[in-house]
Amino acid sequence: MPLRRQYAAQCIFHYLNCRQALCGIHRQHLAFPASAIYPSRSKSDVAIPHSVQRPATGLSNVVKSTSLNSAAALNPPDSTLPPPLSLPQREPNLSRLDLLKFYYRTGKAYLSFYKSGIKAVWANYKLLRQLRTRIPSDRSAEQALRDGHLTRGEYHLIRRTRSDVSRIPLFGIVLLICGEFTPFVVLFLGLNGAVPKTCHVPKQVDGAREKLEARRRESFRQGTIIGNNSTDVGDITKLPKPILAHVGKSLGLYSSLWDKIGVTPTPFLSWRMRKVVERIHADDFALERDGGIEHLSDEESKRAAEDRGLDVLGKPTSEVRAALDHWLDARKQTSIFHLLSTRPSVWPQPQGENLIDKSNV
User: Fold this and answer.
1) Residue pair 163/279 in contact by the 8 Å Cβ criterion
2) Per-residue pLDDT tens for 59-108?
3) 0.90 exceeded by the pTM?
4) Positive or negative, the Cα torsion across 18, 252, 350, 237?
5) Rounded CA gap, 192 and 174, in Å?
């Protein structure tokens, strides 16, 4: 119980500090490498912050430096992902005392995992607070990304951290009440929305993906396909309601509870759709500008595919990256809503190497 209260208090304390920082307190920009948060990760697993890359000399070093810079620009720090979770192995035929010790060590491992995840949220927020000074007051994060004020990795750091900070108060209450049983309660009650993404256990991540992909398959089985290639961001309000609901299900933009009562929250869904489409437009542009799909890490490749309604479970990274490449090429030939509402098998085939026109972003 003391450890439970300590970690829950840290959740609330970090959230209050984050809220205080929102009042406009800024400091000089500093780099905060993920290795300071997750020291157990090797150096090769940690994204090198773009602002601290050292210039290389010699031809081979130039090539290596270009690759590192592209990876750093494309991928947010590892601190935006859950830390490693190491659980004790349960041996067969344990006595009652040994079984209690096993459960104690397991609970302690989960509490340590959550503590690392909460520390990561706070560290990420300190980075976010510094990045905000580089965004003009009259520009959104997506506009700053397109204008070159942010790299893709920095943009996703901002987006994920804002989401995680908003979840800390409720998660702190759940952690205070449930303690080491928090992961079981979260999985049983489906409280993924109350848990910061840095505190998602592996089973929680896989479970969320399985549910989303199952819901997407069911929506596609209903035969909803858009055929108008000219529909774009400004025409969201003109989308037929079935198409709007289909894309919302495919991307997980609204709760499946609405499906059970047979109602589609159209005004809310239209608002979310507009935000998501704006984000995907900006991300497509940044992917090509900052180095290309090949420099994305394995996990970032999966997340980028998920953001575009592509299945990733059970697929090798090469196949996921190939689907992303297909997406970027098809985006030059057709509407984003056509891609979001259909499977890759019916997308336009690659025709050239022209970049996405920034004026259409």
Assistant:
1) no
2) 233 333 345 588 889 999 999 999 999 999 888 888 889 888 888 898 88
3) no
4) negative
5) 12
